[in-house]
Design brief:
There is one protein chain. By secondary structure, the protein is mostly helical. The chain has a domain of about 70 residues. It is built from 23 helices and two strands. A two-stranded antiparallel sheet has the order 1-2. Strand 1 and strand 2 form a beta hairpin.
Length: about 575
Protein backbone atom coordinates (compact mmCIF):
# COMPACT_ATOMS: atom_id res chain seq x y z
CA UNK A 1 0.00 0.00 0.00
CA UNK A 2 2.68 2.49 1.07
CA UNK A 3 4.88 1.50 -1.90
CA UNK A 4 2.05 2.54 -4.22
CA UNK A 5 1.78 5.89 -2.43
CA UNK A 6 5.50 6.53 -2.67
CA UNK A 7 5.50 5.61 -6.36
CA UNK A 8 2.69 8.19 -6.86
CA UNK A 9 4.90 10.79 -5.12
CA UNK A 10 7.79 9.93 -7.39
CA UNK A 11 5.68 9.96 -10.59
CA UNK A 12 4.16 13.36 -9.65
CA UNK A 13 7.64 14.72 -8.88
CA UNK A 14 9.04 13.39 -12.16
CA UNK A 15 6.30 14.84 -14.38
CA UNK A 16 6.34 18.23 -12.66
CA UNK A 17 10.12 18.38 -12.99
CA UNK A 18 9.84 17.46 -16.68
CA UNK A 19 7.20 20.17 -17.12
CA UNK A 20 9.56 22.65 -15.44
CA UNK A 21 12.39 21.83 -17.88
CA UNK A 22 9.98 22.11 -20.81
CA UNK A 23 8.86 25.56 -19.59
CA UNK A 24 12.45 26.69 -19.09
CA UNK A 25 13.53 25.99 -22.68
CA UNK A 26 10.37 27.52 -24.13
CA UNK A 27 10.76 30.58 -21.91
CA UNK A 28 14.35 31.13 -23.12
CA UNK A 29 13.19 30.85 -26.74
CA UNK A 30 10.28 33.27 -26.20
CA UNK A 31 12.48 35.75 -24.34
CA UNK A 32 15.22 35.80 -26.98
CA UNK A 33 12.75 36.19 -29.85
CA UNK A 34 10.33 38.48 -27.97
CA UNK A 35 7.45 36.11 -28.80
CA UNK A 36 3.88 35.90 -27.52
CA UNK A 37 1.47 33.09 -28.40
CA UNK A 38 -2.26 33.69 -27.96
CA UNK A 39 -4.36 30.52 -28.40
CA UNK A 40 -8.15 30.43 -28.61
CA UNK A 41 -10.18 27.25 -28.57
CA UNK A 42 -13.89 27.57 -29.26
CA UNK A 43 -15.64 25.10 -26.97
CA UNK A 44 -19.21 25.73 -28.11
CA UNK A 45 -20.92 28.14 -30.51
CA UNK A 46 -24.68 28.64 -30.53
CA UNK A 47 -26.24 31.40 -32.69
CA UNK A 48 -24.19 34.50 -31.79
CA UNK A 49 -22.86 33.19 -28.47
CA UNK A 50 -19.47 31.48 -28.43
CA UNK A 51 -17.73 30.06 -25.36
CA UNK A 52 -13.97 30.33 -25.93
CA UNK A 53 -11.04 29.00 -23.91
CA UNK A 54 -8.02 31.33 -24.26
CA UNK A 55 -4.36 30.70 -23.38
CA UNK A 56 -1.64 33.35 -23.26
CA UNK A 57 1.96 32.13 -23.47
CA UNK A 58 4.69 34.73 -23.11
CA UNK A 59 8.03 34.79 -21.27
CA UNK A 60 6.34 35.93 -18.03
CA UNK A 61 3.72 33.16 -17.85
CA UNK A 62 6.27 30.48 -18.87
CA UNK A 63 8.84 31.69 -16.33
CA UNK A 64 6.26 31.76 -13.53
CA UNK A 65 5.00 28.28 -14.50
CA UNK A 66 8.59 27.05 -14.42
CA UNK A 67 9.04 28.30 -10.85
CA UNK A 68 5.65 26.93 -9.70
CA UNK A 69 6.35 23.47 -11.18
CA UNK A 70 9.91 23.38 -9.75
CA UNK A 71 8.78 24.27 -6.21
CA UNK A 72 5.75 21.93 -6.34
CA UNK A 73 7.86 19.01 -7.62
CA UNK A 74 10.39 19.52 -4.81
CA UNK A 75 7.58 19.88 -2.24
CA UNK A 76 5.96 16.62 -3.39
CA UNK A 77 9.32 14.83 -3.15
CA UNK A 78 9.75 16.34 0.34
CA UNK A 79 6.22 15.18 1.31
CA UNK A 80 7.23 11.58 0.57
CA UNK A 81 9.23 11.67 3.79
CA UNK A 82 7.41 14.39 5.76
CA UNK A 83 3.97 12.78 5.30
CA UNK A 84 5.24 9.18 5.45
CA UNK A 85 3.07 8.36 8.48
CA UNK A 86 -0.04 9.77 6.77
CA UNK A 87 -2.69 7.12 6.06
CA UNK A 88 -4.26 9.04 3.16
CA UNK A 89 -1.16 10.17 1.30
CA UNK A 90 -2.92 9.69 -2.06
CA UNK A 91 -5.56 12.26 -1.07
CA UNK A 92 -2.87 14.73 0.00
CA UNK A 93 -0.91 14.39 -3.28
CA UNK A 94 -4.09 14.80 -5.36
CA UNK A 95 -5.02 17.97 -3.42
CA UNK A 96 -1.53 19.41 -3.96
CA UNK A 97 -1.68 18.60 -7.70
CA UNK A 98 -5.13 20.24 -7.95
CA UNK A 99 -3.68 23.28 -6.21
CA UNK A 100 -0.80 23.50 -8.70
CA UNK A 101 -3.15 22.96 -11.66
CA UNK A 102 -5.41 25.83 -10.45
CA UNK A 103 -2.39 28.14 -10.22
CA UNK A 104 -1.17 27.18 -13.71
CA UNK A 105 -4.67 27.82 -15.10
CA UNK A 106 -4.62 31.29 -13.52
CA UNK A 107 -1.13 32.04 -14.88
CA UNK A 108 -1.89 31.24 -18.54
CA UNK A 109 -5.35 32.86 -18.64
CA UNK A 110 -5.96 36.15 -20.46
CA UNK A 111 -9.68 35.55 -19.94
CA UNK A 112 -11.64 36.49 -16.80
CA UNK A 113 -13.73 33.29 -16.91
CA UNK A 114 -10.73 30.97 -16.85
CA UNK A 115 -9.04 33.24 -14.28
CA UNK A 116 -12.12 32.72 -12.07
CA UNK A 117 -11.75 28.93 -12.44
CA UNK A 118 -8.12 29.07 -11.30
CA UNK A 119 -8.84 31.71 -8.64
CA UNK A 120 -11.76 29.81 -7.14
CA UNK A 121 -9.88 26.52 -7.46
CA UNK A 122 -7.07 27.97 -5.35
CA UNK A 123 -9.57 29.13 -2.71
CA UNK A 124 -11.42 25.81 -2.54
CA UNK A 125 -8.35 23.55 -2.49
CA UNK A 126 -6.60 25.81 0.03
CA UNK A 127 -9.61 25.34 2.35
CA UNK A 128 -9.33 21.55 1.97
CA UNK A 129 -5.59 21.70 2.72
CA UNK A 130 -5.88 24.07 5.71
CA UNK A 131 -8.45 21.80 7.40
CA UNK A 132 -6.40 18.70 6.49
CA UNK A 133 -5.58 17.77 10.11
CA UNK A 134 -9.25 18.11 11.13
CA UNK A 135 -9.17 19.71 14.56
CA UNK A 136 -10.91 22.77 15.98
CA UNK A 137 -8.00 25.13 15.28
CA UNK A 138 -7.65 24.06 11.64
CA UNK A 139 -11.44 24.26 11.07
CA UNK A 140 -11.48 27.86 12.35
CA UNK A 141 -8.42 28.76 10.28
CA UNK A 142 -9.91 27.09 7.18
CA UNK A 143 -13.18 28.98 7.53
CA UNK A 144 -11.35 32.31 7.99
CA UNK A 145 -9.18 31.55 4.92
CA UNK A 146 -12.12 30.49 2.77
CA UNK A 147 -14.36 33.44 3.70
CA UNK A 148 -11.56 35.99 3.23
CA UNK A 149 -10.86 34.54 -0.22
CA UNK A 150 -14.57 34.49 -1.07
CA UNK A 151 -14.53 38.30 -1.09
CA UNK A 152 -12.02 38.15 -3.94
CA UNK A 153 -14.07 35.48 -5.74
CA UNK A 154 -17.20 37.64 -5.58
CA UNK A 155 -15.26 40.64 -6.91
CA UNK A 156 -13.98 38.57 -9.85
CA UNK A 157 -17.60 37.54 -10.58
CA UNK A 158 -18.57 41.23 -10.51
CA UNK A 159 -15.71 42.02 -12.92
CA UNK A 160 -17.05 39.33 -15.28
CA UNK A 161 -20.52 40.90 -15.18
CA UNK A 162 -19.12 44.42 -15.79
CA UNK A 163 -16.99 43.15 -18.68
CA UNK A 164 -20.13 42.05 -20.52
CA UNK A 165 -20.32 45.76 -21.55
CA UNK A 166 -17.30 45.18 -23.78
CA UNK A 167 -18.68 42.07 -25.48
CA UNK A 168 -15.95 39.69 -24.29
CA UNK A 169 -13.92 38.65 -21.28
CA UNK A 170 -10.39 38.73 -22.73
CA UNK A 171 -9.24 41.59 -20.51
CA UNK A 172 -5.89 41.79 -22.31
CA UNK A 173 -7.57 43.51 -25.29
CA UNK A 174 -9.06 46.34 -23.23
CA UNK A 175 -6.18 47.37 -20.99
CA UNK A 176 -4.80 50.32 -22.96
CA UNK A 177 -7.48 51.81 -25.18
CA UNK A 178 -10.36 51.44 -22.65
CA UNK A 179 -8.30 52.96 -19.83
CA UNK A 180 -10.44 56.11 -19.43
CA UNK A 181 -13.77 54.33 -19.76
CA UNK A 182 -16.21 54.71 -16.84
CA UNK A 183 -16.82 50.95 -16.60
CA UNK A 184 -13.08 50.24 -16.55
CA UNK A 185 -12.76 52.46 -13.47
CA UNK A 186 -15.09 50.14 -11.54
CA UNK A 187 -13.26 47.10 -12.91
CA UNK A 188 -9.90 48.51 -11.79
CA UNK A 189 -11.19 49.10 -8.22
CA UNK A 190 -12.52 45.54 -8.06
CA UNK A 191 -9.26 44.08 -9.44
CA UNK A 192 -7.25 45.89 -6.74
CA UNK A 193 -9.64 44.75 -3.97
CA UNK A 194 -9.62 41.15 -5.25
CA UNK A 195 -5.81 41.15 -5.33
CA UNK A 196 -5.71 42.60 -1.81
CA UNK A 197 -7.85 39.75 -0.44
CA UNK A 198 -5.77 37.03 -2.14
CA UNK A 199 -2.43 38.59 -1.22
CA UNK A 200 -3.60 39.36 2.35
CA UNK A 201 -3.05 43.12 2.43
CA UNK A 202 -4.54 45.27 5.21
CA UNK A 203 -7.43 44.86 6.19
CA UNK A 204 -7.54 41.22 4.95
CA UNK A 205 -4.26 40.14 6.58
CA UNK A 206 -5.48 37.92 9.40
CA UNK A 207 -6.07 34.77 7.32
CA UNK A 208 -2.41 34.37 6.29
CA UNK A 209 -0.92 33.41 9.71
CA UNK A 210 -4.10 31.41 10.47
CA UNK A 211 -3.51 29.29 7.34
CA UNK A 212 -0.43 27.85 9.10
CA UNK A 213 -2.75 25.11 10.39
CA UNK A 214 -2.07 23.34 7.06
CA UNK A 215 0.71 20.69 6.77
CA UNK A 216 4.17 22.28 6.36
CA UNK A 217 4.73 21.14 2.71
CA UNK A 218 1.46 22.91 1.83
CA UNK A 219 2.66 26.05 3.67
CA UNK A 220 5.88 25.93 1.62
CA UNK A 221 3.84 25.81 -1.59
CA UNK A 222 1.18 28.35 -0.58
CA UNK A 223 3.58 30.98 0.77
CA UNK A 224 6.12 30.81 -2.01
CA UNK A 225 4.56 30.60 -5.44
CA UNK A 226 0.86 29.77 -5.47
CA UNK A 227 -2.03 31.17 -3.42
CA UNK A 228 -0.67 34.44 -2.02
CA UNK A 229 1.16 35.42 -5.21
CA UNK A 230 -2.02 35.12 -7.31
CA UNK A 231 -3.12 38.64 -6.36
CA UNK A 232 0.31 40.13 -7.18
CA UNK A 233 0.36 38.33 -10.55
CA UNK A 234 -3.14 39.58 -11.41
CA UNK A 235 -2.08 43.16 -10.70
CA UNK A 236 1.09 42.70 -12.79
CA UNK A 237 -1.14 41.66 -15.71
CA UNK A 238 -3.55 44.57 -15.13
CA UNK A 239 -0.74 47.07 -14.56
CA UNK A 240 -1.27 48.97 -17.84
CA UNK A 241 -4.84 49.72 -16.81
CA UNK A 242 -4.06 50.69 -13.23
CA UNK A 243 -0.83 52.68 -13.43
CA UNK A 244 -0.99 56.35 -12.37
CA UNK A 245 -4.48 56.03 -10.87
CA UNK A 246 -5.62 57.18 -7.43
CA UNK A 247 -6.37 53.56 -6.44
CA UNK A 248 -2.71 52.60 -6.93
CA UNK A 249 -1.68 55.41 -4.58
CA UNK A 250 -4.05 54.02 -1.94
CA UNK A 251 -2.70 50.51 -2.59
CA UNK A 252 0.82 51.88 -2.06
CA UNK A 253 -0.18 53.19 1.37
CA UNK A 254 -2.00 49.98 2.43
CA UNK A 255 0.74 47.65 1.18
CA UNK A 256 3.49 49.72 2.88
CA UNK A 257 1.52 49.57 6.14
CA UNK A 258 1.10 45.79 5.66
CA UNK A 259 4.85 45.43 5.28
CA UNK A 260 5.47 47.48 8.43
CA UNK A 261 2.75 45.74 10.48
CA UNK A 262 3.95 42.23 9.55
CA UNK A 263 7.56 43.12 10.41
CA UNK A 264 6.57 44.36 13.88
CA UNK A 265 4.23 41.41 14.58
CA UNK A 266 6.93 38.87 13.61
CA UNK A 267 9.16 40.26 16.36
CA UNK A 268 6.54 39.47 19.03
CA UNK A 269 5.63 36.00 17.74
CA UNK A 270 6.93 32.71 19.19
CA UNK A 271 5.35 30.23 16.78
CA UNK A 272 8.03 29.21 14.25
CA UNK A 273 5.66 28.85 11.30
CA UNK A 274 3.80 32.07 12.10
CA UNK A 275 7.06 34.05 12.12
CA UNK A 276 7.80 32.78 8.61
CA UNK A 277 4.18 33.45 7.56
CA UNK A 278 4.45 37.05 8.79
CA UNK A 279 7.70 37.44 6.87
CA UNK A 280 5.78 36.31 3.75
CA UNK A 281 3.16 38.96 4.52
CA UNK A 282 5.91 41.57 4.79
CA UNK A 283 7.40 40.54 1.41
CA UNK A 284 3.94 40.57 -0.20
CA UNK A 285 3.54 44.14 1.03
CA UNK A 286 6.91 44.93 -0.60
CA UNK A 287 5.80 43.39 -3.93
CA UNK A 288 2.44 45.18 -3.91
CA UNK A 289 3.97 48.54 -3.00
CA UNK A 290 6.67 48.44 -5.70
CA UNK A 291 3.94 47.35 -8.13
CA UNK A 292 1.83 50.37 -7.19
CA UNK A 293 4.84 52.60 -7.92
CA UNK A 294 4.56 51.48 -11.54
CA UNK A 295 7.37 48.90 -11.65
CA UNK A 296 5.65 45.58 -12.49
CA UNK A 297 8.75 43.77 -13.82
CA UNK A 298 10.63 44.55 -10.61
CA UNK A 299 7.70 43.21 -8.54
CA UNK A 300 7.67 40.05 -10.68
CA UNK A 301 11.44 39.70 -10.21
CA UNK A 302 11.10 39.86 -6.41
CA UNK A 303 8.12 37.48 -6.52
CA UNK A 304 10.27 34.80 -8.19
CA UNK A 305 13.38 35.22 -6.04
CA UNK A 306 11.24 35.29 -2.88
CA UNK A 307 9.50 32.06 -3.92
CA UNK A 308 12.76 30.10 -3.80
CA UNK A 309 14.07 31.03 -0.37
CA UNK A 310 10.62 31.13 1.25
CA UNK A 311 9.82 27.55 0.14
CA UNK A 312 13.23 26.47 1.49
CA UNK A 313 12.61 28.29 4.78
CA UNK A 314 9.31 26.46 5.31
CA UNK A 315 10.86 23.10 4.47
CA UNK A 316 13.63 23.68 7.02
CA UNK A 317 11.00 24.68 9.58
CA UNK A 318 9.12 21.42 8.83
CA UNK A 319 12.24 19.33 9.54
CA UNK A 320 12.87 21.20 12.81
CA UNK A 321 9.23 20.80 13.92
CA UNK A 322 9.45 17.05 13.21
CA UNK A 323 12.66 16.69 15.21
CA UNK A 324 11.25 18.66 18.14
CA UNK A 325 8.32 16.26 18.50
CA UNK A 326 5.85 18.60 16.72
CA UNK A 327 6.83 21.55 18.90
CA UNK A 328 6.56 24.93 17.17
CA UNK A 329 7.41 27.30 20.04
CA UNK A 330 10.89 28.76 19.46
CA UNK A 331 11.39 29.27 23.22
CA UNK A 332 11.77 25.49 23.57
CA UNK A 333 14.46 25.34 20.89
CA UNK A 334 18.10 26.42 20.86
CA UNK A 335 21.55 25.12 19.95
CA UNK A 336 20.19 22.82 17.25
CA UNK A 337 22.98 23.74 14.79
CA UNK A 338 25.20 21.25 16.67
CA UNK A 339 22.82 18.38 15.91
CA UNK A 340 21.27 19.15 12.50
CA UNK A 341 24.00 21.04 10.58
CA UNK A 342 22.60 20.49 7.04
CA UNK A 343 19.12 21.74 7.97
CA UNK A 344 20.62 24.74 9.77
CA UNK A 345 22.84 25.51 6.77
CA UNK A 346 19.79 25.59 4.49
CA UNK A 347 17.84 27.68 6.99
CA UNK A 348 20.65 30.20 7.48
CA UNK A 349 21.17 30.70 3.75
CA UNK A 350 17.43 31.12 3.12
CA UNK A 351 17.24 33.58 6.05
CA UNK A 352 20.18 35.54 4.68
CA UNK A 353 18.58 35.62 1.23
CA UNK A 354 15.42 36.98 2.88
CA UNK A 355 17.45 39.74 4.56
CA UNK A 356 19.09 40.68 1.26
CA UNK A 357 22.67 39.66 2.12
CA UNK A 358 24.78 40.45 -0.99
CA UNK A 359 24.97 37.96 -3.86
CA UNK A 360 22.16 35.70 -2.61
CA UNK A 361 18.78 35.61 -4.40
CA UNK A 362 16.99 38.22 -2.29
CA UNK A 363 19.78 40.81 -2.61
CA UNK A 364 19.33 41.40 -6.34
CA UNK A 365 15.61 42.17 -6.10
CA UNK A 366 15.44 43.87 -2.68
CA UNK A 367 18.43 46.14 -3.23
CA UNK A 368 17.10 47.22 -6.62
CA UNK A 369 13.64 47.88 -5.15
CA UNK A 370 15.00 49.99 -2.28
CA UNK A 371 17.24 51.99 -4.60
CA UNK A 372 14.28 52.65 -6.91
CA UNK A 373 12.31 53.84 -3.84
CA UNK A 374 15.18 56.19 -2.92
CA UNK A 375 15.28 57.34 -6.54
CA UNK A 376 11.54 58.04 -6.76
CA UNK A 377 9.85 61.22 -5.56
CA UNK A 378 7.48 59.72 -3.00
CA UNK A 379 6.99 61.32 0.41
CA UNK A 380 8.86 60.65 3.63
CA UNK A 381 6.18 58.30 5.04
CA UNK A 382 6.67 55.76 2.23
CA UNK A 383 10.46 56.13 2.46
CA UNK A 384 10.30 55.59 6.24
CA UNK A 385 8.00 52.53 5.97
CA UNK A 386 10.23 50.87 3.36
CA UNK A 387 13.49 51.28 5.23
CA UNK A 388 12.12 50.53 8.71
CA UNK A 389 10.47 47.36 7.31
CA UNK A 390 13.83 46.32 5.83
CA UNK A 391 15.43 46.80 9.25
CA UNK A 392 12.62 44.82 10.89
CA UNK A 393 13.22 41.94 8.44
CA UNK A 394 16.80 41.68 9.65
CA UNK A 395 15.58 42.09 13.26
CA UNK A 396 13.15 39.14 13.29
CA UNK A 397 15.48 36.95 11.21
CA UNK A 398 18.40 37.40 13.64
CA UNK A 399 15.99 36.86 16.55
CA UNK A 400 14.80 33.60 14.97
CA UNK A 401 18.36 32.40 14.33
CA UNK A 402 19.38 33.27 17.90
CA UNK A 403 16.46 31.37 19.42
CA UNK A 404 16.92 28.35 17.14
CA UNK A 405 20.66 27.93 16.78
CA UNK A 406 22.77 30.05 19.10
CA UNK A 407 21.03 30.15 22.49
CA UNK A 408 21.14 27.16 24.87
CA UNK A 409 19.09 24.04 24.17
CA UNK A 410 15.74 24.28 26.00
CA UNK A 411 13.88 21.06 25.16
CA UNK A 412 13.63 17.90 27.29
CA UNK A 413 16.72 16.40 28.87
CA UNK A 414 16.35 13.24 26.79
CA UNK A 415 16.24 13.99 23.09
CA UNK A 416 17.26 12.46 19.79
CA UNK A 417 18.08 14.99 17.09
CA UNK A 418 19.44 13.66 13.83
CA UNK A 419 19.98 14.97 10.33
CA UNK A 420 19.68 11.77 8.34
CA UNK A 421 16.41 12.12 6.45
CA UNK A 422 18.05 12.19 3.03
CA UNK A 423 14.78 12.60 1.11
CA UNK A 424 14.10 15.91 2.85
CA UNK A 425 17.73 17.05 2.61
CA UNK A 426 17.97 16.27 -1.13
CA UNK A 427 14.80 18.26 -1.82
CA UNK A 428 16.10 21.15 0.31
CA UNK A 429 19.46 21.19 -1.49
CA UNK A 430 17.72 21.81 -4.84
CA UNK A 431 16.08 24.94 -3.42
CA UNK A 432 19.31 25.90 -1.62
CA UNK A 433 21.08 25.97 -5.00
CA UNK A 434 18.26 28.05 -6.49
CA UNK A 435 18.24 30.43 -3.48
CA UNK A 436 21.87 31.21 -4.23
CA UNK A 437 21.79 31.52 -8.05
CA UNK A 438 18.21 32.49 -9.00
CA UNK A 439 18.67 36.22 -8.27
CA UNK A 440 21.61 36.74 -10.62
CA UNK A 441 20.19 34.32 -13.20
CA UNK A 442 16.85 36.16 -13.37
CA UNK A 443 18.52 39.56 -13.42
CA UNK A 444 20.52 38.60 -16.51
CA UNK A 445 17.44 37.13 -18.18
CA UNK A 446 14.67 39.62 -17.39
CA UNK A 447 16.43 43.00 -17.71
CA UNK A 448 17.78 43.78 -21.15
CA UNK A 449 20.22 46.39 -19.81
CA UNK A 450 21.78 46.83 -16.35
CA UNK A 451 20.13 49.37 -14.06
CA UNK A 452 22.57 52.03 -12.88
CA UNK A 453 21.02 54.10 -10.10
CA UNK A 454 23.05 57.14 -8.99
CA UNK A 455 22.34 58.26 -5.42
CA UNK A 456 24.18 60.21 -2.70
CA UNK A 457 26.54 58.06 -0.64
CA UNK A 458 24.42 57.97 2.56
CA UNK A 459 21.26 57.18 0.61
CA UNK A 460 23.08 54.42 -1.25
CA UNK A 461 24.29 52.99 2.07
CA UNK A 462 20.90 53.37 3.81
CA UNK A 463 20.05 49.68 3.25
CA UNK A 464 23.24 48.63 5.03
CA UNK A 465 22.61 51.10 7.88
CA UNK A 466 19.08 49.85 8.64
CA UNK A 467 20.16 46.20 8.21
CA UNK A 468 23.00 46.61 10.71
CA UNK A 469 20.68 48.38 13.14
CA UNK A 470 18.15 45.51 12.80
CA UNK A 471 20.93 42.95 13.31
CA UNK A 472 22.13 44.62 16.53
CA UNK A 473 18.57 44.95 17.87
CA UNK A 474 17.80 41.30 17.07
CA UNK A 475 21.01 40.15 18.77
CA UNK A 476 20.58 42.19 21.96
CA UNK A 477 16.86 41.44 22.34
CA UNK A 478 17.13 37.66 21.94
CA UNK A 479 20.55 37.03 23.49
CA UNK A 480 20.07 35.18 26.78
CA UNK A 481 23.55 36.10 28.06
CA UNK A 482 24.85 38.97 30.15
CA UNK A 483 24.23 41.61 27.44
CA UNK A 484 20.56 40.75 27.02
CA UNK A 485 18.12 43.63 26.76
CA UNK A 486 15.35 41.26 27.89
CA UNK A 487 16.28 42.06 31.47
CA UNK A 488 15.81 45.80 30.96
CA UNK A 489 13.07 46.12 28.36
CA UNK A 490 9.63 44.55 28.78
CA UNK A 491 9.86 43.72 25.11
CA UNK A 492 7.12 41.11 24.91
CA UNK A 493 4.62 43.13 26.93
CA UNK A 494 5.47 46.40 25.21
CA UNK A 495 2.20 46.71 23.41
CA UNK A 496 -0.64 44.32 22.79
CA UNK A 497 -1.54 46.41 19.77
CA UNK A 498 1.81 45.68 18.10
CA UNK A 499 1.79 41.98 19.00
CA UNK A 500 -1.49 40.91 17.47
CA UNK A 501 -1.30 42.39 13.96
CA UNK A 502 -3.02 45.63 15.00
CA UNK A 503 -6.07 43.65 16.30
CA UNK A 504 -6.89 42.43 12.79
CA UNK A 505 -7.48 38.75 13.73
CA UNK A 506 -9.97 39.90 16.41
CA UNK A 507 -11.64 42.41 14.10
CA UNK A 508 -12.03 39.96 11.24
CA UNK A 509 -13.38 37.11 13.41
CA UNK A 510 -14.84 38.00 16.83
CA UNK A 511 -15.30 41.69 16.06
CA UNK A 512 -17.11 40.96 12.82
CA UNK A 513 -19.46 38.25 14.08
CA UNK A 514 -19.97 39.28 17.74
CA UNK A 515 -23.00 41.56 17.24
CA UNK A 516 -24.69 39.19 14.80
CA UNK A 517 -24.20 36.21 17.11
CA UNK A 518 -25.32 38.23 20.13
CA UNK A 519 -28.45 39.40 18.30
CA UNK A 520 -29.23 35.86 17.14
CA UNK A 521 -28.82 34.59 20.72
CA UNK A 522 -31.39 37.14 21.89
CA UNK A 523 -33.73 36.17 19.05
CA UNK A 524 -33.44 32.51 19.99
CA UNK A 525 -33.99 33.27 23.66
CA UNK A 526 -36.97 35.63 23.28
CA UNK A 527 -38.63 34.45 20.07
CA UNK A 528 -37.77 30.81 19.36
CA UNK A 529 -37.73 29.76 23.01
CA UNK A 530 -39.96 32.63 24.19
CA UNK A 531 -43.15 34.05 22.68
CA UNK A 532 -43.22 31.84 19.62
CA UNK A 533 -42.71 28.77 21.80
CA UNK A 534 -45.49 29.87 24.17
CA UNK A 535 -48.03 30.53 21.42
CA UNK A 536 -47.10 27.71 19.04
CA UNK A 537 -45.14 24.59 19.93
CA UNK A 538 -44.81 24.36 23.70
CA UNK A 539 -48.06 26.30 24.47
CA UNK A 540 -50.27 24.14 22.23
CA UNK A 541 -48.57 21.03 23.50
CA UNK A 542 -49.28 22.08 27.11
CA UNK A 543 -52.98 22.77 26.44
CA UNK A 544 -53.47 19.49 24.55
CA UNK A 545 -51.55 17.61 27.23
CA UNK A 546 -53.80 19.01 29.99
CA UNK A 547 -56.96 18.15 28.02
CA UNK A 548 -55.73 14.66 27.25
CA UNK A 549 -54.83 14.11 30.94
CA UNK A 550 -58.37 15.18 31.89
CA UNK A 551 -59.94 12.85 29.29
CA UNK A 552 -57.60 10.08 30.30
CA UNK A 553 -58.76 10.34 33.92
CA UNK A 554 -62.37 10.48 32.79
CA UNK A 555 -62.05 7.40 30.56
CA UNK A 556 -60.29 5.18 33.06
CA UNK A 557 -62.15 1.89 33.74
CA UNK A 558 -63.33 3.00 37.14
CA UNK A 559 -66.82 1.84 38.41
CA UNK A 560 -67.32 5.03 40.46
CA UNK A 561 -66.93 7.21 37.38
CA UNK A 562 -69.37 5.09 35.36
CA UNK A 563 -71.86 5.08 38.26
CA UNK A 564 -71.47 8.84 38.77
CA UNK A 565 -71.98 9.54 35.07
CA UNK A 566 -75.05 7.18 35.04
CA UNK A 567 -76.60 9.00 38.00
CA UNK A 568 -75.77 12.35 36.37
CA UNK A 569 -77.58 11.34 33.16
CA UNK A 570 -80.61 10.05 35.14
CA UNK A 571 -80.84 13.36 37.00
CA UNK A 572 -80.61 15.31 33.74
CA UNK A 573 -83.32 13.05 32.23
CA UNK A 574 -85.68 13.51 35.23
CA UNK A 575 -85.11 17.25 35.16
CA UNK A 576 -86.08 17.33 31.49
CA UNK A 577 -89.28 15.29 32.15
CA UNK A 578 -90.31 17.65 34.96
CA UNK A 579 -90.05 20.59 32.62
Amino acid sequence: MYKNYFSICFISFFFLFLFMMFNFFFMMYFLMNNMVIFLEWEIISFNSVSVVMSILLDWMSLLFMMFVSLISSVVIYYSKSYMSSEMNLMRFIILVLLFVFSMILLIISPNMISILLGWDGLGLVSYCLVIYYQNLKSYNAGMLTALSNRIGDVLILMIISWMMNFGGWNYIFYLEFMKNDYSMMFISVMVILAAMTKSAQIPFSSWLPAAMAAPTPVSALVHSSTLVTAGVYLLIRFNLLLSETLFFKLLLLFSSLTMFMAGISANYEFDLKKIIALSTLSQLGLMMSILSMGLPILAFFHLLTHAMFKALLFMCAGVIIHLMGDMQDIRFMGGISLYVPMTCLCMNISNMALCGIPFLAGFYSKDLILEMVSFSNFNFLIFFLYYISTGLTMYYTIRLMMYLMINDFNLLSVYNLYDEDYTMIKSMLVLLFMSVISGSMLMWMIFYYPYMIYLPFNLKMMVIYVSLLGLLMGYFISNMGIYSLNKYLFTYNLSTFLCVMWFMPNLSTYGLVYYFLNYSQKLVKNIDFGWSELYSGWGMFNILKNYSMFYNIYQMNNFKIYLFSFILWILIFLFMLMI
